[in-house]
Amino acid sequence: MTGYDADVVVVGFGGAGAAAALSAAEHGVEVLVVDRDTRGGNTALSGGSLRLRPDVERAARYLSTLSLDRKAAAVHRSMLDGCRDLGGWLVRLGAEIEEMNDAFVTNTLPRVLASPYPTIAGSEALGPRFRVRGRDGQSGGDAVWELLRDAVLRHPRITVRTPAVAVELVRAGQGRVDGVRLREADGVHGVRARHGVVLACGGFEYDRRLQQNYLGFSLPAFGWPGGNDGSGVRLAQGVGAALWHMTSIASVLGYQLPGLEAAVRHSMPDLGYVYVDQECARFVDETGVDFHAIPMDLLRMNPRTFRRDRMPSFLVFDEATRAAGPIADTYLTPYRDEFRWSRDNRAEIERGWIAAADTPRELASTLGLDPDALAATVERYNAGAAAGADPLGRAAADMRPLRGPFYGVALWPCLINTQGGPRRDATCRILDPGGEPIPGLYGAGELGSMWTQLYPGAGNLTEAIVTGRTAGAAAAAALAPPAGPAPATGTVTPAVTDALAAFVADLRAGDLPETALRAARRCVLDQLGCAVFGSTLPWSALVRDYVRDEGSAPRALVWGSGLRASATLAALANATAGHAFEIDDLHAGACFHPGR
Ligand SMILES: Cc1cc2nc3c(=O)[nH]c(=O)nc-3n(C[C@H](O)[C@H](O)[C@H](O)COP(=O)(O)OP(=O)(O)OC[C@H]3O[C@@H](n4cnc5c(N)ncnc54)[C@H](O)[C@@H]3O)c2cc1C
Its Gene Ontology biological processes (predicted)? Predict the structure, then answer.
């Protein structure tokens, strides 16, 4: 490996980075993982829920409706296939896996619905949620993280280097990404990657400028302050990557509290509560809408005032609910080792985080709201609760008149994670704006996620590990390892493919004898004729539809149609058409297909 620091360099040591490193190492290459710290990113703070048993065909249709992104169909499919393989892989790493029971859905407020977007058919095809049981009884993302981290740390072919912040990608000849510049304690150093670099360094939960540019606002986040700062987006842009899904986020409600940079998650112990906007009006069925979907109602812009006047909104709850349990989940935050929310919310009232008052009017004054408006809203809600009827559709069984004293706190849509980043294909190669892979560059995890506006839950962590595995394997295979056993006779390795491609790329017509040129011309003509006929066959039409759906830059002609696509996609369609009715593979003497 002279001149190289590793075969594969992985930027980011969260779930995606750990999975990428393990997968690359499983393919026999040397891996270097770099991160600014060792806390495990969003992965370690997550709820830890995973999808391991989707019904692939139906789930693919569901995802295509959910995402509204037809370019992502192949990416969805690859992720769903990867889900089915994921449980077995985690078990081989030593995981104990359990299905999350129904109590998770029924006992959580706001609710985690089995079908977050009930008007879109097919959500059940994603299958149940699963989680990893931790050694010390944890069952959140910390259990997943510890499993992956420990497997990485004990792997003989993986080296972890921290603290090391990736500041720039380095390109070699022909534009191949072959290294990263790292900022470390003693200065900036370059590390070189023989096969390629995997970007697995999370989203832009802590980059307000990127959020303002793409979302139109910036939000508090649940992740480690200073962790995912959008550097993955900038690194990829620096080498010409296309971006996608930059306006999409996963969000749930939370609190922004004085002295805490990260948000704290909202979670209710009982039913005595409502949400109101800045005019003190209720706006959503607080218990009947999935917790991932409720933030959409807070994010909207008021079409009359052109203000986002539900940011923040306010949680108003009553005495019985205060006494029933904490209104926050401090386990899924960076502060879980520093403090736990008090069981009766008293400590937080004393700290001034929660406003308390005997009447809705007094509460409104403390929160800076209109006292008459809040009093009227509580009165209307209580009358509806007594009658079992709610104009917003809250179920009668979920309503109970609010009784004082009353409590209130500002409520924000908070970032679980952003979804945007460099666009990748089904094998996790990062693409340029023309849809062509940037050689040597791979992406995984929430950076450039496949998820878009409608996030169904338990999707990002699963995607992080699945795409990490895919990216690690693809990077490892980009070139043959320099050492190791010789390939078996007849095996085509990537190194042979590279050598063949380089030979063809360098070849000039003048280098060839006339007889070879004549034979080549006849072969090209033969291939073209076969392809023109082959393009009329149904299986060629399927591939052509796929190429059209991928929507790449119109650079090369797809034979037998007026369609233009990127060179690689056009080559796929044309090669399929050329081989659609050929019988060359049947003649033993003429058999040249590398797969034979
Ligand atoms: C509170 C919370 C709950 C969640 N619950 C769930 C859930 O239950 N199910 C689910 O599917 N998803 C959940 N998610 C989302 C999910 O956890 C993440 O999207 C996923 O884990 C992301 O994994 P990742 O490896 O892509 O990023 P991360 O795990 O965030 O790792 C990225 C790493 O990159 C490092 N890094 C960033 N920039 C650089 C740089 N320039 N140089 C070096 N290192 C860098 C960071 O330090 C970090 O360690 C939750 C997220 C949060 C915050």
Answer: steroid metabolic process
